[in-house]
Design goal:
314 residues, alpha+beta, 60s Ribosomal Protein L30, Chain: A, Phosphoribosyl-aminoimidazole Synthetase, Chain A, domain 2, 2 domains, seven-stranded mixed beta sheet, four-stranded mixed beta sheet, 10 helices, 13 strands
């Protein structure tokens, strides 16, 4: 498929936001004015055989995930997605049917999340698929990773470990466990959950868990604070424990160290806990003044978290 044909697929994407004055069709897109909001800007790169494998990621799954992982960063800032650009590198053997399926699914995802495609670029790669999305969003009062204080309570937006367990299933050709595989293939960015929480909290530290729960806790605590996490309070899918039992494995490395769940982790003052729980957030621990992260088991034993957790590129 020629580049012009790919551009024509991209031009079919709908227009949602008045802030997007000009999308695809000129040398740049034009956005603005933003009406006192801060501009949020994030990018994520997906590389074949590093972030995904073509044998179990369909073009539809890949399109959804490429957009969703960027949306999760906007969610972590309490923001609204606005527009994105797409950089797409494709190897010579990619046929028109695959490309059309990818763009059809990406358009469906953009419509679902109400975010506009406003430009991008395509290139022939030597052997692997490369996808790079730059996503812009807005927020009146962005929520940062910093800001946690001793005595704050830690909350999460959903379950952990499902994506890592799903990857285990796919890599080992295990049948069943559809909901675990879905967590990996079709992550759900928690935009509404973050926006609702930021509206009720006058002080909030927030981050997404793309690189695992343990890494997110390290980011929220920073170098001067720590936290205590009740392991049994961390939510996980029942199928994850069933898989661990069937495979004679511990579920906890998936839950603490496994990434790509794209849930959110928040630190907020005790007086706002009840309101957070009404929104569906789940309390798992608290911030401590001592700069150490402790995982507390059901028997009361404490285990310090490793210094380096989560996915590491280098």
């Amino acid at each position: 498929m020629h580049e012009n044909a790919i551009i024509q697929l991209a031009k079919k994407f709908p227009h949602f936001h008045p802030e997007v004055q000009l999308g695809i069709g000129d040398d740049t897109a034009i956005l603005g004015p933003l009406n006192q909001s801060s501009l949020l800007w994030t990018t994520d790169l997906l590389l074949e055989d590093v972030h995904f494998r073509r044998n179990y990621f369909s073009p539809e799954d890949l399109a959804w995930k490429a957009l969703a992982v960027n949306l999760s960063d906007i969610a972590a800032m309490g923001g609204e997605p606005l527009a994105f650009t797409l950089g797409l590198g494709l190897p010579p053997e990619m046929d028109a049917a695959w490309i059309q399926a990818f763009f059809k699914a990406l358009q469906a995802a953009s419509e679902f999340w109400q975010v506009e495609l406003v430009g991008g670029d395509t290139v022939r790669s030597s052997a692997k698929i490369v996808i790079s999305i730059n996503l812009l969003g807005t927020a009146l009062h962005p929520t940062l990773q910093s800001g946690a204080q001793p005595g704050d309570n830690l909350f999460v937006s959903g379950s952990f470990g499902g994506a890592a367990a799903g990857l285990y299933c796919l890599e080992n050709n295990l049948e069943g466990y559809a909901c675990l595989k879905e967590k990996l293939l079709r992550p759900q960015p928690q935009l509404k959950a973050a926006q609702a929480l930021s509206k009720i909290c006058n002080r909030l530290a927030l981050t997404d868990a793309s690189d695992g729960l343990g890494r997110s806790l390290q980011l929220l605590c920073g170098p001067k604070l720590g936290c205590s996490i009740l392991l049994e309070k961390v939510p996980c899918l029942p199928e994850l424990k069933q898989l661990a039992e069937a495979e004679n494995l511990s579920a906890w490395p998936w839950i603490i160290e496994g990434g790509e769940d794209y849930e959110l982790v928040a630190a907020l003052p005790p007086e706002q806990c009840a309101a957070a729980e009404k929104l569906g957030w789940i309390q798992i621990g608290s911030i401590t003044p001592s700069p150490q992260i402790q995982i507390v088991s059901s028997d009361g034993s404490r285990h310090p978290l490793k210094e380096t957790l989560g996915f590491q590129h280098f």
